[in-house]
Design a protein that fits this description.
By secondary structure, this protein is α+β, with helices and mostly antiparallel strands. It has three domains: 4-147, Rossmann fold, CATH 3.40.50; 173-408, 4-Layer Sandwich (Phosphatase 2c, domain 1), CATH 3.60.40; 419-552, Histidine kinase-like ATPase, C-terminal domain (Heat Shock Protein 90, 2-Layer Sandwich), CATH 3.30.565.10. The protein contains 14 helices and 20 strands. The strands form four sheets. The chain has a five-stranded parallel sheet, sandwiched between helices. A five-stranded antiparallel sheet has the order 6-15-14-11-12. Strand 3, helix 4 (81-91) and strand 4 (97-102) form a beta-alpha-beta unit. Helix 1 packs parallel to helix 6 (127-172) and helix 6 (127-172) packs parallel to helix 7. The radius of gyration is 37 Å and the shape is elongated. The model is unreliable at 1-19 and 555-559 (pLDDT under 50).
Length: 559
């Protein structure tokens, strides 16, 4: 007569490779010599190899990977069944354990199952019931091992596919910086959270001294986000090609026009996919020392000012691409100087967390850029990666890590400004008339065809608000203080710098204006920001504050 257990083992094993064989040795653990002897004899008759232990302590010394299953008594001296079970689960998790207990201890046996026991039998037990449980436990172990092997093969295949996709991503999503471009140095770095991601960036030459940088971040991760990012890049390239096929002598389409064109073409696709992407598009004009900047809900670009060793954050007013109702995109114009640095990045940098679940944050990144602004752009990107991974104590982030650094090396031409003006006045509101007259004389000297009366009034309003803010907030009404005003003019622009040595102004903490009629003041900053073309507040190492406002007299930054 054939042995049913041996037949079962042969049936489940014959379809597995030899290295998938499960050990058939059974470890019986019970403080009763009678029970140990009975189980050993019965199981050996069924073809199993059996070893025995009188308590949990001895069982632990006998455990090895050669054990196929453990029959474990619940109550024993030295080390009871629960303690032994915990040891097995922690050190030999693949070995199934069947608990042996008396009927009134069933609740304890059920509790043991919650801690990983395969099943339980009660004393006195039915030999056939016990044999069936042993067979089932071994079968389950074989199936689990086979499943792990299949999952490992699938994981290996996915890893291979993702590796290929990652290499494709380097071509489709990550553009190469312009080579040998005089007046600028560029660095870039991207590290995907899942080896392939939705971050993308590219560079486009639109002239000998003019190039565009685009940095985007698709909502989501993995291959779907990467595919949408690749589609977005293709649309930008197509829009540039289409819009730049213009008649000789015509101006280059502005970044805001290019972004508008791409949004119009992709809005239907993104609506169907229920997704969107943030974006910043920057055109660097190295002749005019000007950047035309379109921000669509992206992280605020860091502008490091070499002259003052300070940083400002660039932020636009546009919604991300893919949001319905966005009919027009608006760009802002920002002047730059030799030594300035622009740092574009994705939220993978600022949203990296340390073990305390604290975000790295925008302010830490601003400080990092300022401290390491002397580095080559490529080294700056690598340093950002090193410092952020050190902060998070991990080189694996929940989001993608992408940054682009652009450092300016265009010396200021001596002939850029036609005239320079200077006026120093006491910090007193009674000097406002004198400042307005200073603005009037300066603008009139440039010619009526350069600055009209309406623009002169706008500049006077901004100067009045700046002077008022310095007197009220920086000097807090103290007498005996002075304000220095320096101006530079050309046919293209007017730059006004207001210097004071009062309390430092923190623009980010300034209260927002209230337009419901409940307040009569607080509108000065709003007027300044919406009247001047560019505004920057800084403080140098000597403690001198500077409010810099720029008025562009011609529409610039479009080629």
């Amino acid at each position: 007569m054939s042995n049913p257990t041996k037949n079962y083992q042969r049936n489940v094993s014959e379809h597995l490779p030899t290295d998938d064989q499960i050990p058939s040795t059974i470890l019986v653990v019970d403080d009763s010599r009678v029970v140990r002897t009975y189980l050993q004899s019965h199981l050996q008759k069924e073809g199993y190899e059996v070893i025995v232990a009188k308590d949990g302590k001895e069982a632990v010394s006998l455990l090895s990977d050669n054990i196929g299953i453990v029959l474990l008594d619940l109550w024993m001296p030295e080390m009871d069944g629960m303690a032994c079970l915990r040891y097995i689960r922690e050190n030999f998790a693949d070995i199934p354990t069947i608990m042996i207990t008396v009927s009134h201890e069933i609740s304890n046996a059920v509790e043991a199952m919650k801690y990983g026991a395969f099943d339980y039998v009660t004393k006195p037990f039915n030999p056939n019931e016990l044999l069936a449980l042993v067979q089932q436990a071994l079968k389950t172990r074989i199936q689990a091992q086979r499943l792990r092997k299949v999952e490992a093969e699938l994981a290996k295949a996915r890893e291979h596919e993702i590796s290929i996709a990652s290499r494709i991503q380097q071509t489709l999503l990550l553009g190469g910086a312009p080579k040998n471009l005089k007046g600028v140095r560029i660095g870039d770095l991207t590290i995907a959270s899942k080896k392939i991601d939705g971050d993308f960036y590219d560079f486009y030459m639109v002239g000998d001294t003019c190039f565009d940088v685009i940095v985007g971040d698709v909502m989501g991760k993995g291959i779907p986000a990467a595919l949408l990012g690749a589609a977005a890049k293709q649309h930008f390239m197509a829009a540039l090609y289409r819009l730049t096929r213009i008649p000789e002598g015509s101006s280059m389409p502005a970044p805001e026009e290019i972004v508008q064109s791409v949004h119009r073409e992709m809005i239907g696709q993104m609506k169907d996919l229920e997704t969107f992407f943030t974006l910043c598009y920057a055109r660097f004009d190295l002749t005019k020392n000007l950047i035309s900047y379109v921000d669509c809900g992206h992280m605020r670009t860091i502008h490091y000012h070499f002259e003052t060793n300070s940083c400002t954050l660039l932020q636009g007013v546009n919604m991300p691409l893919g949001f319905p109702g966005q009919d027009h995109f608006k760009q802002i114009l920002i002047p730059f100087s030799n030594g300035d640095l622009f740092f574009f990045y994705s939220d993978g940098l600022t949203e990296a967390k340390n073990p305390k679940h604290e975000f790295y944050g925008e302010q830490r990144l601003v400080d990092l850029v300022r401290r390491h602004s002397f580095l080559e752009p490529q080294e700056l990107c690598k340093t950002a990666w090193k410092e952020i991974t050190a902060f998070s104590r991990s080189d694996t982030f929940s989001d993608d890590f992408t940054c682009v650094a652009v450092k300016i090396e265009v010396p200021e031409p001596t002939e850029r400004y036609d005239q320079e003006w200077k006026l120093e006045v006491p910090g007193d509101l009674g000097e406002l008339g004198r400042i307005r007259a200073f603005i009037q004389d300066m603008c009139k000297s440039m010619g009526t065809n350069v600055v009209d009366d309406e623009r002169i009034k706008m500049i006077q309003i901004v100067a009045t608000e700046l002077m008022t803010n310095i007197i009220k907030h920086a000097y807090q009404g103290r007498k005996g203080e002075t304000v220095l005003i320096e101006a530079k003019t050309s046919r293209d622009e007017i730059i006004l710098n207001f210097y004071d040595r009062g309390i430092e102004f923190d623009f980010s903490s300034a209260p927002k204006p209230v337009f419901d009629g409940s307040k009569d003041d607080g509108f000065g900053l709003h007027i300044i920001a919406h009247t001047a073309d560019y505004v920057r507040y800084s403080r140098d190492e000597t403690g001198r504050n500077c409010a810099c406002v720029t008025f562009f007299l011609q529409r610039r930054g479009q080629g």
